[in-house]
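Help wanted!
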Amino acid sequence: MFKVDQIKFEGKGSRNPLAFKHYNPSEVVGNKTMEEHLRFSMAYWHTLTGEGSDPFGAGTMQRSWDSYTDPMDIAKARVEAAFELMVKLNIPFFCFHDADIAPQGSSLREFQKNLDTITAIMKDYMKDTGKKLLWGTANNFSNPRYVHGAATTCNADVYAIAAAQVKKAMDITKELGGENYVFWGGREGYETLLNTDMKLELDNLAGFMHMAVDYAKKIGFEGQFLIEPKPKEPTKHQYDFDTATVIGFLKTYDLDKYFKMNIETNHATLAGHTLQHELHLARINGLLGSVDANQGDMLLGWDTDQFPTDLYTTTMAMYEILKNGGLHKGGLNFDAKVRRGSFEPEDLFYAHIAGMDAFAKGLKVAHRLLEDKVFENFTAQRYSSFNSGIGKKIIDGEVDFESLSQYALSLDGIRNESGRQEMLEGILNDYMID
Ligand code: XLS
Ligand code: NI
Ligand code: NI
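Answered by r_m:
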């Protein structure tokens, strides 16, 4: 379906845009191969179903499967294209929403039947190619019935339909051996508090998640549940604002042992954070699950979902991932779309190659930074006042306000040391350029 041959690793000196310069799947970095570290995944929605439309114009993408008219024929052609793409690009995983892979038809029943047909076809392709499902999810936001949300809707009938959709999406995720199941709160949020019962909506959302956990147990689904935070869009205020907000929600509703985080770069930046901040916070709480690898635009305030090419971001992401001991069941999912102007099928190849090389290079730099303990040693030294004396007592919980006050009054001046930010940024540059 694509007029592009198998993409190969040609190494650093190559100027061939249809070759990898850094991503060499079998190359060992530290204790694992690049393929094992990076666990790349293709996002079905952007790559197979994205049309390139925007609020001002219709789709621009040239896709061979659009030559069919029957929606099931289109869906089947997309499966063929998806696997050809994954094979040619050496991408081991993929992710989908239910609505990406099969037409919704005119009823829930018809939708489920279509899903079964496509799932069976996918299963065969997976067997033949060895490609795996990183995660599945339900699209509980596109259909007009979700106008007021799905698990946070004001309409109990809609809540039930949302549950039916997630139940089925979990069934097919399990059927295809999916390693995770994602909840991104599509329209779980609000526009105005003038008509919103926030407490009821949050309670219902938590109840929905608990039912998903119970159902997973019932059917023996052992994949990891993931929540994907996003601060806004489509609603003004999404409930899963950022990692910190989600941690609070999970703990409040006793869900923290069942869920981890799926962190998306562009969602982090919309929340006013860096990707590294979100990964770091998830990691230190034992909740780093998976990554939606994309990037936003510094000048645009919405989710542009661009392919990740910023080396600083990929380097510091891989730094956090290495410190996490890897992504475990998670992966780097290219939740990214080619620009509207990049409408030719080959652009899908250029885009994935650029993203894969950016993360491969980031992995190599991060590995060297960690080997040399560049920031570790500096940071350890920076906090060394807590290794002995009063600092050690603080860490060991052997002080109270009275003893600290007594100590403070005995001090004869203090000495702070420089944080050396610019020096450290310079060192990071040196490692990246090397
Ligand atoms: C949208 C989200 C979505 C999730 C899956 O902003 O990134 O694509 O990853 O529902
Ligand atoms: Ni995403
Ligand atoms: Ni997004």
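OP: Thanks! One thing I noticed: The two ends are 39 Å apart (CA to CA).
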